[in-house]
Structures are given as structure tokens and as C-alpha cells.
Design brief:
Layout: H1 47-50, H2 53-126
């Protein structure tokens, strides 16, 4: 024979022992005074959180490319400046050497003139 329950003791299997729980308003534990937790709502997100990872990495690569280009341009400018400085220093060295040689040549020719004058004076003294 089939076992049937009395009509007064009806048990529905979907209803929990503590009573039915509303998923939206109440916690699963059945504590009605505790509110259902929701995800943190950020009204103002930082700039990095607003963008996806792919977008951020793309921006990062663009920034790195710009920085590399800036560095390259700065290096080229500095190299041109260094070349100009080297050329100027080289010209200065050449000019100084030229002046030194001219002064030396002038000094030597003065000594030579002095020697010639002494010879002339000796010649005149003999005659």
C-alpha cells in the first residue's frame, strides 16, 4: 500500500526549513536584518581602471615609442653639438699652434737680423 501523508502536514521540498528566503532582499542565511551585499559601486574610477588592459598596454607602447623618438632626437642634437665643439677646439688648437710658430719665426728672424747687423758692423770696422 502507498504511504500518504495527512492533509494537514503537507511538506514542499523546495521550501527551506526556516522558511522561504527572498534572494533579492534577504541573505541566504535567513537573517532578515542583514542586507544583501552588492559589488562595490565606484562613482569615480581612476583613469587606469576605466580602460581595458589591451587599451592600457597599447597606450603604454605608444608612450614608449614617443619617448624613444625623443631620446633619439636629443642624442642626435647632442652629437651635433659635440661635433661642433670638437671642430671649434681643433680650430683653436691649430690657430694657437700657428701663432706660436709665427712668434717663434719672428723671434728667430730678429736674432738673425741682429747677427747680420753685427757682421756689418765688424766689416765696417775693418775697412
Amino acid at each position: 500500500m502507498e504511504h500518504s501523508l495527512p492533509s494537514t502536514a503537507k511538506v514542499e521540498p523546495k521550501i527551506a526549513v526556516g522558511g522561504e528566503v527572498e534572494k533579492i532582499n534577504r541573505r541566504v542565511s535567513g537573517k532578515s536584518w542583514k542586507l544583501q551585499k552588492t559589488a562595490t559601486g565606484r562613482t569615480q574610477k581612476s583613469k587606469t581602471l576605466r580602460n581595458s588592459w589591451a587599451k592600457r598596454s597599447e597606450e603604454r607602447t605608444k608612450i614608449n615609442q614617443v619617448k624613444a623618438l625623443e631620446k633619439q632626437l636629443k642624442d642626435e642634437k647632442q652629437a651635433a653639438k659635440d661635433r661642433k665643439r670638437e671642430i671649434t677646439l681643433e680650430r683653436k688648437k691649430i690657430q694657437e699652434e700657428k701663432e706660436r710658430m709665427e712668434a717663434l719665426a719672428a723671434k728667430m728672424s730678429a736674432k738673425r737680423l741682429q747677427r747680420l747687423r753685427k757682421r756689418e758692423a765688424r766689416k765696417k770696422a775693418r775697412v
